[in-house]
Amino acid sequence: LPIKTPGTRAFPHILYPTTVCSAQSCDSESVYPRECEMSAATELPELRSKESTHRAFVLFHNTSNRQIELFWIDYHGRKISYGVMQANEKRKIDTFVTHPWTFCDPHNKTQILVNGSNVFYPTVWYEGAIDLVRMMIKRQVATIYLAIRTLKELTLEKIAMKLPNAYSAHELELPMALAGDVECVYKELREKIKRVGE
């Protein structure tokens, strides 16, 4: 049966258009770095994209009321930004089943859940994903939403985001325990921002 190919294309491997490899390890349809090409001495993180020929078609839906930044985890475990999604925005992404995706608040770098998990792995497109009536591929829907947080967590984060440095927390008119909490939140935020920037 003929299948209508989705019109929107955003293949992660397009990020590597200049990859050079030998004729033995590459063909005309493969332009992204293969795992076998990476140095054996390089210790790669567990959370990373792995070589796959199984395509996946996803529809990301930001059901929250705030902006969400979308990241593809590349073959080295680095976060590659695919832009910011607005509140209630839907975005079509064509990817592969072994390619993980994560999401965060672009302002405070807080991790955002997708389908109840911190990391999203697509499923292969042909697993119950064909609409035989309209003869087209049905995209896997990935629902992005905010985890419920306490008022204390939100307040500490708001205060921490306004501080010039971690030690400034102890200059505020707060009980010692709360000042310590603010300092910890500040350090966590800085670490999140550092990881995203790597």
Your description of this structure?
This is Putative e3 ubiquitin ligase vhl component von hippel-lindau tumor suppressor in s. InterPro entries: VHL_beta_dom, VHL_beta_dom_sf, VHL_sf, VHL_tumour_suppress_b/a_dom. GO terms for molecular function: ligase activity. With 198 residues, this protein is an alpha+beta fold. It has two domains: 122 residues, Immunoglobulin-like; 47 residues, no CATH class. 17% of the residues lie in helices and 23% in strands. The chain has a seven-stranded mixed sheet, with no helix packed on it. It has a two-stranded antiparallel ribbon with strand order 7-8. It is elongated, with a radius of gyration of 21 Å. The termini are far apart.
Question: How are the secondary structure elements laid out?
Answer:
Blueprint: E1 55-62, E2 68-73, E3 79-85, E4 90-96, E5 101-104, E6 111-114, E7 130-131, E8 136-137, E9 140-145, H1 151-161, H2 176-197
Parallel strand pairs: 1-9
Antiparallel strand pairs: 1-4, 2-3, 2-5, 5-6, 6-9, 7-8
Helix pairs in contact: 1-2
